[in-house]
Amino acid sequence: MEKEITIYDIAKDMGVSPTTVSRALNNHPAVNAKTKKRIYDAAQEMGYQSNIFAANLRKKKTNNIGVIVPRLNSNFQSSVIAGMEKVANEAGFNLVISQSLDSVEKEIANANTLFNSRVDGMLVSLANTTESIEHYNRFFKKGIPTLFYDRVADHPACTGFVIDNTQAGYKVTQHLIEQGCKRIVHVIDNIDINVYADRLKGYKYALLDHDMPFDESLVIFSNLSEESAEEIVEQVKKLDPLPDALFISNDACAASCLRPLKLAGFRIPEDIALVGFNNEISSRLVEPNITTINYPGYEMGELAMKNLINHLEGKSIGVLSKTNKITLRSELIIRESSLRKKYSPQPT
Amino acid sequence: MEKEITIYDIAKDMGVSPTTVSRALNNHPAVNAKTKKRIYDAAQEMGYQSNIFAANLRKKKTNNIGVIVPRLNSNFQSSVIAGMEKVANEAGFNLVISQSLDSVEKEIANANTLFNSRVDGMLVSLANTTESIEHYNRFFKKGIPTLFYDRVADHPACTGFVIDNTQAGYKVTQHLIEQGCKRIVHVIDNIDINVYADRLKGYKYALLDHDMPFDESLVIFSNLSEESAEEIVEQVKKLDPLPDALFISNDACAASCLRPLKLAGFRIPEDIALVGFNNEISSRLVEPNITTINYPGYEMGELAMKNLINHLEGKSIGVLSKTNKITLRSELIIRESSLRKKYSPQPT
DNA sequence: TTGTATGCGTTATCAT
DNA sequence: ATGATAACGCATACAA
Lengths: 348, 348
Description:
homodimer; 348 residues; alpha/beta; 434 Repressor (Amino-terminal Domain); Rossmann fold; 3 domains; six-stranded parallel beta sheet; four-stranded parallel beta sheet; 44% helix; DNA-binding
């Protein structure tokens, strides 16, 4: 490892002070334009590389933003991260990413690692088992902006980016009711997570508003994985009377249910209408296409990152500090899997 | 912002030297166990947080590993990254991730950013338009281990993790030939990328070995996106005579072709057999299920990261330094979309 | 086993 | 517009 060039070397070479070199390289206004140019060229020629360690030490900043997601290999999450990366990259920030794999312990460990590595800000989507967010207190106390998205906690310090899951749940349920469905099964993950709790709320509200009873046995809990599809269908088959709609909180899982449903003799949507969530590619691939909620993951990532960076750059006094929740628009996308009016002629 | 606790504060408090504190906190063997414990407890109590800036400055290490991928919101890439994160996390390294969006310019910019942020090592999958890898020379020269995966370059300094794409292409083509296919269309992205060039090579070899002619008009170029499916099918329809097999280098794209193919009147696999690549969920969702190559992305991420970290920790002298390519096993997964023998009785 | 002294390379403060 | 100096907090060579 050869000796690295420092601003001292450049300074000596050019007969100026290290201070001037530092300023020139940082494009400080109070440096003569010509001097600046000369220094810049010399640095280039000498192969100077700014020592970010020393700069960080002085500035107490890393230009790194920590991200904690439940899982990286999820359609939704990778879209979000892609959106974040775009914005961060353009603003000169790096993304330090870790996944909790839906384990609180891992989430805590990751939060501590990121805290110790001194990220300038945090973007978090909680693990599905995380109940307390006290492991983020260190960030709050130290004034490190920490924003949550999608899976957020109900906490005054927790500014979050979400879609209106209650509204989405309501829209889906209402749509199914309008299609003549009477017994609508709702499949969700852990009820402690805001997204599922809210969708269930919307589901209940819609039933209420249409004078339909809420039947607890129609709420099925599942981790919503591709693999759990078979089990969900098994449970559905046991319901008596059989349901006439399935509202599953995840497209990949909904799409995976299609085959076992067909094998069990259900026609979609005639016997059972099917609705997913997220507008993933899987909802568009299968036949029939699956009705879903468009969940703007990429945009959510962009927006969350934009806000975080504005905050870091002091441009947003008052915007986030007073805001507790920022809600993105989502929309119901109606496809074949739930369109019964067209397909099922009234049985006289 | 309060004053932070340093090892000096602890040292003063406990009547020992900062050196001892530093050693104790780093679990240095030459420190009395009791002293160590006392120091550790005191640090805990005083709310000491190691200043990683200063440590980095001294050690010239960041514990960060840079990752450049073509796109984050890709099924395959997010699996790879998930595998990397798991291994890195366990070994105490952070992942700094950026995406090139398949643009050379962005890839170069990202490489420079990561270089300047002094990552300890690099893991790269090239953009589909990247021809030269000279923007990684700075890493090579400085001895920063830089490994490539999936999309690698043919360069002596470029150690890469790949599957045997030639073999995979061969296996698929051979399988299709065995199923009685005579005119096999192969759809790939940029031929300058090793993965596609190699698959095409395998395709050609298989034809050769079975005394079948190579017809250039049967190779279709596409970005393999979901959206490009319609266009691919359009091109297929124009072929004369019509092909009897489609080997598409990406599952999501292959799955997306299914509907337009059916709409055009093709039965799968009777009229046209269909094969994808990657074993993504989409290949399992559609009907018929799509024959594909299992591409172990998660394992590739794990393996690449393991090797990189071994290298960083000096455990692998000679393993990687002398290796230019590490090949992972992949396998043909035969599903309904290409099984013609069962379905198409011989037309006497 | 512990301590002393020094350097890592930058940026902020204050002065000129 | 430029410079001198100090400080950031740690880890290590060397000394004891």
